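S1.2 Input.
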Amino acid sequence: MQVNNNPDIDFPAAQVNISQPGAAPSEMETQITQRVESAIRGVNGVDEINSSIREGNSNTFVQFEIGTPTDRAVNDIRDALAQIRGDLPEGILEPQISRVDIAGDPIVFVAAETSDMSLEELSWYVDNTVAKRLLGVEGIAAVSREGGVDRQIRIILDPAALQAQGITAAQVNQQLRQTNLNAAGGRAEIAGSEQSVRVLGNARDAYELSQTQISVPGGRTVRLADLGEVRDAYSEQRTIAKMNGRQVISFNVQRSKGSSEVTVYDKTWEELKKIEKDDPRIHFSEISNNVDYTIAQYHSAMEGLWEGAVLAVLVVFLFLRDIRATLISALAIPLSAIPAFWFMSLMGITLNGLSLLALSLVAGVLVDDAIVEIENIVRHMRMGKSGYQASIDAADEIGLAVLATTMSIVAVFLPVALMPGISGQFFKAFGFTVVIAVLMSLLVARMITPMIAAYFLRAKGIQPHASGPMMNKYLDILKWSLSTERARAYRERKPGAIRAVLSMFRDHRVWMVGVGLGLFVLQGVLFATLSITFQPAMNFDFSNVRIGMAPGSTLEQTEAVVDRTAAIVMKDPDVEKVFERVYVGSGYVNIVLKKDRKKTSTEFERSLGPEISAIPDAQVNFLSQNGGGPGGAARDIMLYLGSDNPVLLYETANKISDEMAKLPGLRAPRVAGDLVRPEITIKPRFDLAADLGVTTTALSQTIRIATLGDIEQNSAKFSLADRQVPIMVSLSERSRRDLATLENLPVPTSSGGSVP
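S1.3 Output.
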């Protein structure tokens, strides 16, 4: 059977992700997010819409009503967005609409290292070789790379040359799109045969591309090399991945729905070992995985199942004192469990946390019905009956009680299995596992146990049953607890109403009821004083730190803080290795702890928490095991505030944060919203712009392409044998640091010329 951590569930939700490089959050909200939400709001079955907006990216999460077919709902969203596609800005990437697949979380993170490849070559090796071979493994749904760079043909324009020639970066990009491509040319019939016609305009290498003639104002042409430098290089690095201080390429593997986490994990490493053997230059090392916990949970449940079964058999032998009767009872456990596994497999139930919990719960229940049957058969045999006759009489006598016992368990757990909603999808595995197991045990107890007993047990004539010193002692205690003799004697000796009431305190039954009530009250007191949490703190072999930088921080500044955090963590003797992920303005440190450590992962985090939190100019904290929040800022308690007034919203959030800091039991409350970021604003002089025929769109396009390059779907392409490489036209990073360079970029006018 398949072994997973959680059951596969169908969560009715979808995501809409739209990117517009360089766009501010306020522009993304008004021009994209609000229009997307308005279109989605009319889709049938929508229950809730949440959007998060960051620079250049809008993400809308749509949750549907429980029971809505997810595939149909996703198609409805796709149709709704297609109707407003023309209303969205031109500079966006194609909207990405995807269903939310809870089972699609990565199961393993792997780092790829080499000493014989450049960063670009290693990135392409992971994308082209590693990903393709892993996707050929059954059960793997996706392989996603983090870090690294992509190969690009970079055209680094010279601002002075652009000004001298009166041409813009957008015009250079547009001409390359129209000239540097291979296109269809139709069909011709030459020499009596039909032949296709192609137009081959693609340059063979970077040098040939640099000799491309570019039209400039005045009817002249210049070489592309005269306007800037043409390089066969790689994209600007925006993310960095490091393992123990060395830059690596990392990737994660996601399993497909319905497959086994453990099987997919084993097959993944089996294929990675083959890749290492085929290419000794490459080496893979594991950063973290979610499978070790699943395997430990599975083994723990199986051990508990075996221990429960063995102890149940020992208890049966202790009381029946008959080897043959004990063996018949013990046989009921595998005869009930194995068919239960078969029916679970037919129903698509995997061995996950909930189904394993159910199996552990019913380990003793599987033998209950058989014990009742076999004990009654043994009792009848000790009356002097044969094994065959005793089995018939005992099974007939106890049948209704056994059936009622099993059906009461089914009546409790079957509604749990049929619960609606997301909770019902989780508890389906639990409820049906219990129901199937106890029904199998009923079938064994009513049919197989009496049949085996009839021919396997040996009659030994009339014998005492349920007797002995321990049984006699138990019967004495039972008689005392039910005794009313002292109360009756007290009433007879001194009759009267008051004496009758006082006689109740001499009744042992009253004392037993009092003991029961006392225990019930004690349970209530203990329950009220216990701490309440969603789940206990677990001792994982890994931990995660999140670093948030001030708005406007560069990749180099973020890398320095992430390196400092990793250095603090590496000094701890319980740390085995550290993996760093660096983005612009944020970063993560994934920590792999030693298995033979003395501290739990929670104790490790508490010991290092104050030191990493003291790092200046950054928000550094461990991610909570149970918390969740935007941007991965997982904390135990999250409060969400909403308002149409951003200034008032932040003021209120800061006040709440200050008040929470005074409460006992809370540590380091923070406002998770993004701070105001620095920006350069360009305000058109509309009178001059109108006279010269310069539009705001032309200004925006000129600046965006010069500083970022055009979006990939609108950029020219360089065709290779195995792929197409985008040609990115932009200024150099050095030029982007000079405000005067941006001020003097030429902008096209309606007359065909340009102005700064």
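S1.4 Remarks. Confidence is low (pLDDT under 50) at residues 627-633.
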